[in-house]
From TrEMBL:
<dbReference type="GO" id="GO:0003723">
    <property type="term" value="F:RNA binding"/>
</dbReference>
<dbReference type="InterPro" id="IPR049560">
    <property type="entry name" value="MeTrfase_RsmB-F_NOP2_cat"/>
</dbReference>
<keyword id="KW-0808">Transferase</keyword>
<feature type="domain" description="SAM-dependent MTase RsmB/NOP-type">
    <location>
        <begin position="1"/>
        <end position="74"/>
    </location>
</feature>
<keyword id="KW-0949">S-adenosyl-L-methionine</keyword>
<comment type="similarity">
    <text>Belongs to the class I-like SAM-binding methyltransferase superfamily. RsmB/NOP family.</text>
</comment>
<dbReference type="InterPro" id="IPR001678">
    <property type="entry name" value="MeTrfase_RsmB-F_NOP2_dom"/>
</dbReference>
<dbReference type="GO" id="GO:0032259">
    <property type="term" value="P:methylation"/>
</dbReference>
<dbReference type="InterPro" id="IPR029063">
    <property type="entry name" value="SAM-dependent_MTases_sf"/>
</dbReference>
<protein>
    <submittedName>
        <fullName>rRNA methyltransferase</fullName>
    </submittedName>
</protein>
<keyword id="KW-0489">Methyltransferase</keyword>
<feature type="active site" description="Nucleophile">
    <location>
        <position position="6"/>
    </location>
</feature>
<dbReference type="Pfam" id="PF01189">
    <property type="entry name" value="Methyltr_RsmB-F"/>
</dbReference>
<dbReference type="GO" id="GO:0008168">
    <property type="term" value="F:methyltransferase activity"/>
</dbReference>
<keyword id="KW-0694">RNA-binding</keyword>
Length: 74
């Protein structure tokens, strides 16, 4: 299961993930999520989320902000 939002707000990213995990114990965060975007160094967080910021890929015109988390059903 993948959760993705085009937001920089923690309340729409990390906080939603915390609520989901509290209410859905049959899922676990899959920290094997990886991203291969040239120039997007630092997109993968230590928790295993992907957080893309508008300053990433600036030399290619920039981008919107995104938050991505991946889950596996236990």
């Amino acid at each position: 299961l993948v959760y993705c939002t085009c937001s920089l707000e923690a309340r729409e990213g990390e906080e939603q993930i915390a609520k989901f995990m509290k209410n859905r114990p049959e899922f676990r965060l899959n920290s094997e999520l990886s991203i291969s975007v040239i120039g997007a160094n630092g997109a993968l967080t230590r928790e295993g989320f992907v957080r893309m910021r508008p300053d990433m890929l600036f030399d290619k015109g920039g981008m919107d902000g995104f938050f991505i988390a991946m889950f596996t059903r236990c």
